[in-house]
Amino acid sequence: MRSNTVGWLLLAPTLVILGLFGIMPFIYVLYVAFHQWNPFGFSPDMIYNGAKNFRRLVFDREFLLSLWVTLKFAFFAVTSEIALGYLLAQLFTREFPGKAFFRTIHTLPLIVAPIVVGSVWRLMTTPSIGIIPYYLDAWFGYELNIGRDAGAAFALTVIMDIWHWTPLVTLTLLAALVSLPKEPFEQAQIDGASKFQIFWHITLPMIRPAILATVFIRLMDALRTVDEVWMLTGGGPGAATRYVGLHIWKVVFPKTDYGYGSAISVIVLYLTLVMCWILYVALVAPRDRKKRTS
Amino acid sequence: MRRAVAVSLAALAAGLMGSMAPARADFWSDAGAKFQGVTLHGVTESTPPSNYIKDVLAPEFEKKTGIKVEIETTSWDQMYDKAIKDMEAKTGIYDMVYIEQDIIYAYLSRNFLVDVTKTLKDDPSLKAPDFDESHFTTFANYFKDDNGNLFGVPMEAFIKIYLYRTDLFNDPAVKEAFKTETGKDLAPAKTHEDYTQIAEFFTKWGKDKGEQLWGTTAQAHTGHPASWYEFFESVAPTFGVYNWGIDTSKNYAASVANGGSMNSDKSKAALKYWLHLRDIAPPESAASTWTEVATTFAAGRAAQGLVYGENAAWIASDSEKSKVVGKVGVALPPVEPGVMEEVEAGKGYIGYYDGGAFGLPVTSKNKEAALLFLQYIGQDSVQSGWAVAAPRITNTATYEDPGVKDMDAKLGGYYTMLKDDGKLFAGAPPYPFHAQVREATASIFYRILTGEVGPDEGLDQMAAAAEEELTNLGYRK
Amino acid sequence: MPTERPYLAILLWSILSIATLFPVYWLFVISVKPAVDLFTTPSVILDSVYWKNYADVLGNETLRRYMMNSIIISTGNAFLVTTLGFMACYALSRFDIAGKENIFFWTITNRMAPAAVFLLPFFLLFTQVFAIGDWKLYDTRIGMILLYCTFNLPFAIWTLRPTIDGIPKELDEAATVDGCSTWQVISQVIFPLARPGLAVTLILTWVFAWNEFLLAATLTSFNARTITTGLSEYVTSTGTEWGTMAAIAIITLIPALIIFSVVQRHIVAGLTFGAVKE
Fold first, then answer.
1. Which of A238, A239, C140, C226 sits 20 to 30 Å CA-CA off C132?
2. pTM for the complete prediction?
3. How many Å apart are CA B247 and CA B267, to the nearest integer?
4. Which chains are adjacent to chain A, needing at least 3 Cβ pairs under 8 Å?
5. Average pLDDT, stretch B373-389?
6. Rg of chain B's alpha carbons, rounded to an integer?
7. Partners of A156 in beta bridges
């Protein structure tokens, strides 16, 4: 191994920037989380109240409900995006006429800002006026009303997310697939392996790190979705799509409950971290162990 | 001789004008001279009245005083958040902030704002000759403290009114059908019973005829505070439930048990009345905020409805946005028997008087210069142009302007109503905890709207939640 | 590897493209309709085109400035995080750094934070800590470029790590033996091989920065405002100006599309000479 100083130097700018813009604000939020602080409370000052905020959220029905719908949302959205994105990336590794054109179209949703995505989907789905409810009613006699039907509103936020973010998965997995060395595949074909065998024993293990990275990114982003859902449903009907990012938004913006909002954020951050850590250990660690023993 | 007199008179007149005109112009350039190089920063919502400040008044002011003004226009929630963060952290980014009528009490409770009246009294050199606080409409009272001192210069004001379609209400065929069906003459409703009957009639009419027409609008979004506001600001008061049913004198009680009225029988009756209207309103109502309600009405999809006055203007006059231009009538919202008497006796109100002012944060680093600008936009002389460009009235001098009168006719007498009946309407209750209590109860309200909770037990839960939040905030002991 | 059945692929992609394009098409439809026509019975076919929304947007000097800010901030940030991420991944992959797996995992935690609460500390940092005299990081382009590192740098590190790890160590060891410096190894051996991954990282971090709304809305006000925050000005209590908003959104697609087509070529390039040849 070469000099570690060079390694640390290469890493230094990243550590400095994330330290200044990542750790410093986090410490502040952690500090606030142990205080009662609402600038428009009877006493507007920050008052230390120990772990009271954390005790409060364990019994906070609204928060727990929002956490639950967020997990459901993230599960449906991310699994569909990964499956679909992988298939599409595979299709893009082949040659067919008009490939570049289709690839450009496929990436279009990515460049539409989330608040615009939310707005367009809202206009498309406004009950009785939007084009989707209109044709659903005309063709199938199904009345889509996202202001009334909690299940439909939830499904719609998932579909919108899939529409918006599958291209990201396609792109990252495509980049991973095209950088794979060709020899193992050629060798496998010579050995007469089936398509599924190639996928299961060669492709999947080789692109597992890329899949994992993509799952992480999508999972984290899905857990903190705000803009699109805010524009589409505002969290309704009732609390059906009040995802945790939106819930926190409502606690710290209109309610200005900085203390409690910080506590919720710390917990959400912690839960995300634990989930990702479990995933990481489950998927990465066995590979590392194998490497070390071999 | 005559000629000489004429000439000398003309000379005198010219001399007078010459000496007067600079005197008037002088105040602004003299006052501005001290602040050369200063740039004022303001933040406001990007509504037409604010855009008029940004695009017309600010450049005018700059020309006269040499003081540069930059106005940041942004969305409603962003504007609050930015102003509050700036004032809370004392960073002094903004010299002027937009104060919506419902947040002034929160700002005053934190001493965020400069006392305009007092500052001008203490330093008369800053006082503009054309600025007179007494010219503002009664709406300015919402921006005063107990001593009557002004903390913001009112810049927009609207009432939430009852709009109806004159073309439908005056259509002989419709009138006759209504008469046969109900035995009554079709006219804008005065009571809730009438209103319901008319709404039911038109919804049925639309269905029978296969038209896209319903009897009423409903601002009934199931995830946005707009629905909460429609109930507590516009519907509950007409049933005699004021100030959201919270009684500050009784230890901030909300529930009937403790002396409040949020879950009173009147309140429950109001909610059921409104839920019924929501059910016969166009299907988009369950996803409608104030924006969509206005659009629904403008698209000709509703025969009547409660609509914020700021939208009344474009609905009635802008053919690029509205299909019902020239077909809009305005009336006072329908009320429960007895409520109008209560209101006239000064005990309540029948709807929402909304709007905002421009105020000066104590954290501003250019207070004197900002005060000049605030007076500039409060003068009588700038009001009429502003009122025509962005329909709103905050200064009594505006009503008599020919341009405004002209518009009043187009809007079916909306301005006359604002002038004569504005006193029947009221702003939000003077709570420094406005948004906090709203959010604490709104989620239960949304559940009532989706049917997860019944209206009666829902209001009981809301009253309990309001009291709990007030205890958390430290107001309720 | 040509597909055995190209027509099937084309058919499949055509269907998918319609599904993908429809909302974007609808955005366009909204942008060329007067407000009065939006809330009537919808029709998929456009019968008339109303250009006033575009005239309004293109004639607006402020919006042009916002657009410029967006381009500078996203491009600056994308290049910064891709470069730093590339360096960091190389370090993590090739050097024996104590606790490197923990460092690697920690980087991603910076992306997990729910933004709303963090606005307050960011605001305080930008107005009071990173301030010298009258100058503040608040409302500056450089401030936004640095700030966006908090969510883009973790992304860059996580998407680049598999790419860099996938490049056989023997290649740079051989180059070192041949007398190349670390810098030469990175620029001449690793960089060409990592191009598809770098291109994807560049595109996606650019997109994240381009689309970001909440942080920009809070931490900029006059000078560094971006076009996404400009969009929110059209959602007001007197009505959402859907048409204008849609027109801006359509116009903002153009620079994004240009960046995409330029950078995508590098992903394709990966296909032809990115794979390791021995």
1. C226
2. 0.90
3. 14
4. B, C
5. 90
6. 25
7. none
Asked if residue B34 has pLDDT above 80, the reply is yes
Is the pLDDT confidence value at B14 over 50? no
> Per-residue pLDDT averaged across C8-28, rounded?
90
- Residue pair C110/B65 in contact (Cβ under 8 Å)? The answer is no
Euclidean distance between the first and final Cα of chain A, in Å?
A: 20
B·C CB contacts under 8 A: 88
Tokens for B191? 């009571």
Q: Do B48 and C238 touch (CB under 8 A)?
A: yes
3-state secondary structure of C132: strand
pLDDT tens per residue, range A143-160: 899 889 999 999 999 999
Chain C residues with CB under 8 Å of B352 CB are none
Interface of A with B in 152-191 (CB under 8 A): none
Find the mean pLDDT for residues C166-183.
88
Rounded Cα distance, B256 and B261, in Å: 5
Q: Of the candidates A39, A129, A237, which has its C-beta nearest B223's C-beta?
A: A237
pLDDT of the residue at B3: 46
Partners of B212 on chain C (C-beta within 8 Å) are 40-41
Residue B70 pairs with which residues in a beta bridge? B41
Q: Say what the pLDDT of residue B453 is.
A: 95
For residue A256, give the amino acid letter: T
Option in B81, B225, B443 nearest A239 (CB): B443
Secondary element (H or E) of residue B358:
strand B353-359
Whether residue A234 contacts residue B221, with contact meaning beta carbons closer than 8 Å, is answered with: yes
Q: What is the 3 state secondary structure string of B159-225? A: EEEEEEEHHHHCCHHHHHHHHHHHCCCCCCCCCHHHHHHHHHHHHHHHHHHCCCCECCCCCCCCCCH
Q: What is the mean pLDDT of residues A46-67?
A: 92
Q: Do the Cβ atoms of B221 and A127 come within 8 Å?
A: no
C120 touches chain B (CB under 8 A): yes
Provide mean pLDDT across the span B35-52.
90
Which residues between 89 and 128 in chain C have a beta carbon less than 8 angstroms from any beta carbon of chain A? 90-92, 94-97, 103, 105, 107-122, 124-125
Question: Of the candidates A38, A250, A251, which has its C-beta nearest B473's C-beta?
Answer: A38
Q: Are B243 and B257 in contact (CB under 8 A)?
A: no
Q: Is A239 on the interface with B (CB under 8 A)?
A: yes
Please report, rounded to a whole number, the percentage of residues in chain B having pLDDT higher than 70. Answer: 95
pLDDT greater at residue C237 or residue C273: C237
* Helices A150-178, C6-31: inter-axial angle, 10-degree rounding: 130
Chain A (51-70) residues lying within 8 Å, Cβ to Cβ, of chain B: 62
- Is it the case that residue B77 has pLDDT exceeding 90? no
Token pair 């980087």: residue: C107
- Pairs across A and B, CB distance < 8 A: 109
Predicted confidence (pLDDT) per residue in C75-88, tens digit: 999 999 999 999 99
The 10s digit of each residue's pLDDT in B161-214 is: 999 999 999 999 999 999 999 999 999 999 999 999 999 999 999 999 999 999
Instruction: For chain C, positions 22-41, list CB contacts with chain B under 8 A.
Output: 34-36, 38-41
